[in-house]
Design goal:
This protein is α+β, with helices and mostly antiparallel strands. Helix content is 44%, strand content 14%.
Length: 190
């Protein structure tokens, strides 16, 4: 099989992990993982329960630079069809590619190690799920709002606001408390 991102290079057999055979591109450092091999390996390595909140925090703390080949389109080495891409929204975003025909996965140099850090290496299908992406986008927005609240109010007051918000969310009449605070704050600033 030819490398998806260096078409003149033949992929070489390698083990990505014990029990997970892959084909390695000696030029780009990328790896091709056949779907059957990945599913068999995942059966013995169940994924951790990773919430969008956990992943959002891990992504925010990730310090990586995408491989130069990450911006290139790639062809499936088995079917010859273009690979579909799933964006991983790290501070420096990168893409994981999958074959729509065979389900095989292409990872550029270093992406497997990054996915292991994130806890996604044994649940790559989540990256291609529209529901999962929507949940992660929503969590990212919540994280940005929390950061902006801390920036505007300072850490001590922001923590009080977060605690009060949690209490009001759980209280059956919490909306009354929110209305009261809104009324008081708006009338004070007018």
């Amino acid at each position: 099989m030819q490398s998806p991102k260096a078409r003149q290079v033949t992929l070489q057999d390698a083990d990505l992990e014990p029990g997970l055979p892959a084909q390695h591109c000696p030029e780009t450092g990328g790896v091709w993982i056949e779907r059957d091999h990945y599913e068999q390996w995942c059966a013995d390595h169940p994924p951790e329960d990773l919430s969008p909140e956990d992943l959002s925090q891990r992504l925010a703390n990730l310090d990586v630079s995408p491989a130069p080949e990450d911006s290139k389109a790639a062809l499936c080495p088995q079917s010859g069809k273009i690979l579909i891409r799933a964006r991983v929204d790290a501070p420096q975003p990168f893409y994981i590619e999958r074959s729509p025909e065979t389900g095989g996965i292409w990872l550029d140099r270093g992406e497997w190690d990054i996915l292991k850090q994130l806890g996604l290496h044994n649940q790559l299908d989540r990256l291609f799920s529209a529901d999962w992406k929507a949940q992660l986008r929503e969590q990212t927005q919540v994280d940005r709002q929390r950061t902006a609240t801390i920036d505007k109010l300072g850490e001590p007051l922001a923590q009080k606001v977060f605690e009060l918000a949690d209490e009001l969310r759980q209280h059956p009449n919490g909306d009354f408390g929110v209305s009261y605070l809104t009324q008081v704050v708006i009338n004070t600033q007018s």
